[in-house]
Design goal:
By secondary structure, this protein is an alpha/beta fold. It folds into two domains: 129 residues, 3-Layer(aba) Sandwich (Rossmann fold); 81 residues, Haloacid dehalogenase-like hydrolase (DNA polymerase, domain 1), CATH 1.10.150.720. It has nine helices and eight strands. The protein has a six-stranded parallel sheet. Strands 2-3 form a two-stranded antiparallel ribbon. Helix 1 crosses helix 2 and helix 2 packs antiparallel against helix 3. The radius of gyration is 18 Å and the shape is globular. It starts with 9 loop residues before the first strand and ends in an 8-residue tail after the last strand. The relative contact order is 0.18.
């Protein structure tokens, strides 16, 4: 039986952690930035600090009912950098260095099976798009990676639409862009709460990309994107 249900007309993908991956890893980049600004931390120390800072900002977003904007995303990442790299000599310069770094295509790589999956789904007649909790920096990546071209016409970015996943408003924008009912949309992403549960709550089909097989209890999951074609 195909993994994509027969009533699905549109397939939307999350960006970071699903199709796009930082290279080197975010903890390594943060550790390198810290050293440039006088703070010596290992990548593992950075990772521990980053996760704690990220979770605090997620809690703030929950309290704000997932409302966001370009300004909020900048402030959000400024706080995360400040908490993760407390002790650097010039916090604002360090933040600017990191914010600009992750806007560069050279800081990212595309999952190796992306082109095959998108082109095959497109050839099978599916409407394709992307839905991401990111900001305007995503456009530079979409423009740089030819593999992502099939998604370019239908891109929902949280900072642009004013609400982050898993907020229902975000998935309503996905439905609008897809041009079909929620039950005809499949949303594919790597985050259980933001992607899988968010899409399910919006009455979409959902598929978890579980790259490291950490969520065996999720009923609809794959460990490689290419499994969508089976």
């Amino acid at each position: 039986m195909p993994l994509i249900p027969s009533d699905v007309r549109a397939v939307f993908f999350d960006a970071v952690g699903t199709l796009l991956f930082p290279e080197p890893s975010a903890p390594s980049v943060y550790a390198d930035a810290a050293r440039l600004f006088g703070l010596h931390l290992s990548a593992s120390e950075v990772r521990t600090r980053f996760i704690a800072a990220y979770r605090r900002e997620e809690a703030a977003d929950v309290a704000a009912k997932w409302v966001t904007s370009e300004d909020r995303e900048r402030d959000r990442w400024r706080v995360i950098v400040a908490d993760t790299l407390a002790g650097v000599t010039d916090l604002e310069a360090c933040y600017g260095y990191l914010f600009d770094h992750f806007a560069k295509p050279s800081a990212w790589h595309v999952a190796p099976d992306t082109a095959e999956v998108l082109l095959t789904l497109q050839s099978r007649g599916f409407i394709l798009g992307m839905g991401s909790n990111y900001d305007a920096r995503l456009w530079s990546l979409l423009d740089a990676f030819q593999e992502l071209a099939p998604l370019r016409e239908r891109v929902i970015i949280s900072a642009a639409v004013g609400v982050r996943k898993p907020g229902l408003g975000f998935f309503h924008e996905v439905t609008r862009a897809a041009g079909c009912e929620p039950g005809s949309v499949l949303f594919v992403g790597d985050d259980v709460g933001n992607d899988y549960e968010g899409a399910t709550a919006a009455e979409m089909h959902a598929m978890l990309l579980d790259l490291h097989a950490k969520h065996p209890n999720v009923p609809h999951r794959i460990t490689q994107l290419v499994e969508l074609l089976y």
